[in-house]
Amino acid sequence: MDIYINGVWTAFYAIENVQMHKVKFNDAPLHIGWCNFRYFNWRLSAEEVTKNYL
């Protein structure tokens, strides 16, 4: 299994005992992070949220 971070190959992991491991495969890349993060606080303006969290 190849592991990529921000499109850059960073690591490789080999499953040694296939019968004992449970592996789930994705049809598309698995994106982990805050890309769709929404912060709802009625006291902050959109500009303040953008400045603080993006």
Could you explain how this protein is built, in words?
It is a single chain. The chain has 54 residues and is an alpha+beta fold. It has one domain (1-54). Helices cover 15% and strands 17% of the residues. The chain is built from 1 helix and 2 strands; from the N terminus they run ββα. It has one helix at 46-53, and strands spanning 2-5, 8-12. Strands 1-2 form a two-stranded antiparallel sheet. β1 and β2 form a beta hairpin. The relative contact order is 0.12.
List keywords for this structure.
alpha+beta; elongated; two-stranded antiparallel sheet; single chain; 54 residues; 15% helix
Describe the protein's topology.
Elements: E1 2-5, E2 8-12, H1 46-53
Antiparallel strand pairs: 1-2
**What gyration radius follows from the Cα positions, in whole Å?**
18 Å
Q: Which sequence of SSEs, written as H and E, runs from N to C?
A: EEH
Strands of the biggest beta sheet: in what spatial order? 1-2
Biggest sheet features: 2 strands, antiparallel
Query: Which spans of ≥5 residues are poorly predicted at pLDDT below 50?
Result: none
Number of helices: 1
